[in-house]
Design brief:
The chain is α+β, with helices and mostly antiparallel strands and 183 residues long. It is 14% helix and 30% strand. The relative contact order is 0.25.
Amino acid sequence: MPRVILFNKPYGVLSQFTDRRSQTRRQTLSDFIDIADVYPAGRLDRDSEGLLLLCDDGQLQARIADPRFKLPKTYLVQVEGEPDEAVLDELRKGVRLKDGLTRPASAERIADPQLWPRDPPIRVRKSVPDSWIRLTIREGRNRQVRRMTAAVGHPTLRLVRWSIGDWTLDGLPQGQWAETSTP
């Protein structure tokens, strides 16, 4: 039975166990997870937070990370401004990016999800409101969610991956991990 670890990755943490590219010490997975022979199934940018899956099975790792399998990934996204239904429809139909049209997504406005505080906090501008959307995609281009929201005129301020397939962050505090089974 493959070993699967759910990790609630904090902002600023690299999605790898070592950092060989930086002159200054940056936090990595090894600062939080002391388990041998598990590896990230995909990536989550340093400036993004939330669910990162790790496992000890290469085939499962590929199935989770490879966009060919179209595993849904749901993000809670704090954006500048207040997207209306027309903007959400653009996200739902697919957004034209420099590397082509994105696949259709699920997008809806949501109330503030009352997440843990981010360190450092997002920048707040008194003259520009912000709001939250739930966005589910089935592909994994580099910085895709940030590029999608920017393309529709609502840049991302905070990005939290909430779920991958049936795995979710529900009840998992920031910086903590839990072992689970494969769905």
